[in-house]
Amino acid sequence: MSGLPLPLAGEVKQDIPSVVVAKDHNAILLHSIDEAAVSAGLSVGLPLANARAICPELTVYDADPAADAKTLDDIADWCDRFTPLVALDAPYGLFLDITGCAHLFGGERALLQIATGALSRRGFAVSAAIAGTSIAARTLTRCASGTIAASGEEAEATGPLPVAALGADPAITTGLRRAGLKTIGDVAARAPHEISARFGAAFTTLLGHALGRGDAPISPRKPLPDYIVEKRFPEPIATDTVVTLTLQSLARMLVAAMDKQGKGARQLEASFFRTDGAVRSIMVETGRPVTQPELIDRLFRERLDSLNDPLDPGFGFDLIRLAAGRTELVVQQQRDLDANVHDNDRLSALIDRIAARIGGKRVVVHLPLQSHIPERASLALPAQHHLAAAGAAAWPERVAGEPPLRPLRLFERPEPINVPFATVPDGPPHQFTWRRALHAVVRVEGPERIAMEWWKQDGASLTRDYFRVEDAEGQRFWIFRDGLYESELTDEEGEPVPAKWYVHGLFA
After folding, report:
1. Closest by alpha carbon to 247, among 319, 307, 309?
2. Which residues contact 494 (CB under 8 A, 6 or more apart)?
3. CA angle, residues 56, 60, 61, in degrees to nearest 5
4. Residues 186, 166 contacting (CB under 8 angstroms)
5. Domains, in order of start, for the chain
6. Judging by beta carbons within 10 Å of its beta carbon (0-12, 13-18, 19+), is residue 95 exposed, middle or buried?
7. Do the Cβ atoms of 21 and 63 come closer than 8 Å?
């Protein structure tokens, strides 16, 4: 594995020293400094008051860890143009696994120059190195930026470096220096058991990785897609027509690559890399594996047309990438004689288009659950992933010639209504007020008593009496009384407490 860590340390050097300060134990200390500050004799960890005494013209900035993390994430997105395997090395570094990628940029040396040069032009002070292990590459960036150590040559490259380049705990670094071990080569010359006994097994492992003896795996920010196709442009593009044609071309390339293994895409992501370093990614999902480039093109056109923030090319895109993040084997079906297959395909395509426009979580199907409680008798799930289950779901059949027992529109939460009086103990109300409107009841069916799940109520009412009622204007409601009627129930002042009534749904 080849690693390319990019530690970022402030801005480009200026004539006036600049430092970033942070509070540590009620003391304001130098958190990071530029090259001009180093030349002036300042160092990280120095109190700000001492730094001002040494350099009165000092420019001071407050540390902002959140902004630093956001900037590092943005740079990591930009580095996706070199390799899809980009990992964070907090707080200021990145690891890039460039195995098999360097030849696309003219070799490792050219890739190193492209990455560091582009970031330097954007105002960052960058140190980078390439090595066969990630820890060796990170060690080289600290004291030998620009070094390229081939696999197996890590020990030779890191040996002359000071022990501080390992990035170990300061106490360990101080202990090594006091023991006369000033370079990594000096430490490597000692027996491993001696180093472990004095400085711990973790430091011995770190030393071994820096010398190329094994490596610590990196954790990429994003999972590696199953398939990736991309197109680079010698001159940036900025028109919608060229972007659309490029996506169409990439869709054909992606489908051709997946077709060789009989797969279709369930999750697609288009990434647009601008020349100024900004990256915009757009993702769509499908209910069934997509194997046609026309469908991919239509989904992305729907998604692009529905963006609240239109795709801004800035000074143009120099790279467009299309990736299939999740793929599945395509199950061959008899499509010539089975009309249901064609209907399901059209329905699935319609759901995908709607989901691409308004979001997959907003297109749902309802599946029945084994519960007699109305609001728990169904479960809403994303239609893209549960369309097949919805088609096979067994809902209770309606009795022919009988009115529906449940309303067409069921409220997510029952809404309270005001009932001045009702027939007791189990009778319906004669009128009620809902949403500031008075409804006179002319027809009633019920009650239908439904007992709640007593183990989930925490002492609340456990019984509801439901009524199907119709008012004088022909509107039909599904209402219920919460709890049993108890005439002796009174409040603190001894007045009778009226029963609570709610409307739960509306019939068509």
Report:
1. 319
2. none
3. 180
4. no
5. 8-16+58-210 (no CATH), 227-329 (3.30.1490.100), 347-393 (no CATH), 409-506 (no CATH)
6. buried
7. yes
Structure token pair of residue 83:
């390799």
Q: What is the pLDDT of residue 422?
A: 76
Read off the DSSP letter of residue 221: S
501: Cα separation from own chain's centroid: 43
Residue closest to 10 by CA, chosen among 41, 31, 27: 31
pLDDT at residue number 125: 85
DSSP states along 264-306: EEEEEEEEEEETTS-EEEEEEEEEEEE--HHHHHHHHHHHHHT
**Would you state the structure tokens that stand for residue 290, as one six-digit string?**
């997509």
Rg of the chain (C-alpha set): 34
Query: Cβ(221)–Cβ(87) under 8 Å?
Result: yes
CA distance 161 to 239: 50
Alpha carbon distance 173, 163 (integer Å):
6
Backbone φ and ψ of 494, nearest 5°: 85, 5
Q: Are 29 and 151 in contact (CB under 8 A)?
A: no
Backbone φ, ψ for residue 202 (5° rounding): -65, -40
List, for the chain, all residue ranges whose pLDDT scores fall below the cut of 70: 1-14, 332-344, 454-461, 485-498
The residues, ordered by sequence, that sit 6+ positions from 23 with a Cβ below 8 Å of its Cβ are 29
Distance separating alpha carbons of residues 46 and 32, to the nearest angstrom: 10
pTM (predicted TM-score): 0.71
